[in-house]
Structure formats: C-alpha cells, structure tokens
Amino acid sequence: MVRDIYNLLFPEMCPGCSVRLSPGERTICTVCRHRLPVTEYHLIRENPVEKIFYGRVKIEFAAAFLLFRKKGVVQQLIHHLKYKGQSDIGIFLGKWYGACLSETGLRNKIDMVIPVPLHPKKQRKRGYNQVTAFAKCIADAVKADYREDILIKTTNIKAQAFKNRLARWKESESIFDIRQGIAFAPCHILLVDDVITTGATLERCARALQKHGNVKVSIAVMAMTV
C-alpha cells in the first residue's frame, strides 16, 4: 500500500520516452525496450566495432550492444544514466548484455572486467562513474573479477562528443595509465565503456594495459554511434 501511494505521488517515468511506467515495468517501458536497436555484433566476427581498431591496437574481441543515434531512445537512456543519476539503467543494460556475452564463449575466458575510468575531479563532480553498474553486471555474467582500481585517468579533458578523430587522438594521448604499485599476471581483460565513436579513448586504455604486461584486451560498450 505504501509503495502504491508513493508511486501515485512520485510516478516512475520511462527515461526513453518520458511516459509513466505501468505496473510491472522496470527501468524503461515495454515500448522503448522493443525499440532499442540491438546490434548482435557479439555474434559477428569482424563487426563494425572490431574494424575501428584495425591497424591501431590489437583487440581480441569487440562489440557494442546498441546503436546510438541522435535524438533516439538510446541517447535518452545514456543521458539519464550519465547526468540524471539513474544508475538502474546501467544495471538493466548490463544484465541484458552480460547474458548475451556469456553465450558467446567469453564466459570463464575473461579474467577481469575494467571500466574506462573518469578523472577523479569529474567523478567527484558527477558522483559516480556511469559505466560502473554496467561493467559489474557484465563481470558477474561472464564470471570474471571486477576491477576499477587498476586503470586510472591522469588528465582531465573536455567532453569528446563533438570532436573529430584527430582532436580526440591528440587529447587522449598519454592520459590513461596503470595505478602505481599494481602488478598483474598475464590475463584477458574486458574493457568496458558507454559509447564508442572513433575509439580513441578505448585505444589509449588498451595500450596502457598492454604496455604493463602480457595481457589480451577485449572491448564491450553500451552503444556505437552511427
């Protein structure tokens, strides 16, 4: 009864379309869930995400769960996840995509899952890393350790969204590193982020991991821009 009264006074709205969620719906409405542009890239070798890194950095596997289009439902979800504090969106997408990835053969083959880190100043301002919940759910699904204490961002730069590839490359150079005192044995790391456009950020993260040990790197992201 208390929950019903609370929902009446403070109705939960779908972040995808701003419509009130019906009883039984969680996080997003049924309509928006069916509208999500799922890529199924995790089932395709040499998919568009893997091709981004050809000739740039060695990646074992790479895929994006969804396609990100301007003014689309995915943009709305990620906006609410990053700037509205709705971490339940990360959980929702992470559990769904984690289940998909666990069926590809990655289950028990990934040693650790690492989210792309925010600079400490930005994380303090935002309050959390928007990738954390998504990455944790994937780690659970593929039976891997979740580690956010290894990779760090050493330089705080402006948002990347509207910069071209060259500008992203120059600004992302040498801004990621391994935390001092961290050492790890040869392993397979799944690097996780929210949106991939040019791949500059993920490339630099992969290079930082690879130069500190004999590691394999794979990539999983919430969405790829189109």
UniProtKB/TrEMBL annotation:
Domain Phosphoribosyltransferase span(s) in chain numbering: 187-222
Superkingdom per UniProt: Bacteria
PANTHER family linked: DNA UTILIZATION PROTEIN YHGH
Record family assignment: Belongs to the ComF/GntX family.
Protein name: ComF family protein
Species whose genome carries this gene: Sinomicrobium pectinilyticum
Phylogenetic classification of the source organism: Bacteria, Pseudomonadati, Bacteroidota, Flavobacteriia, Flavobacteriales
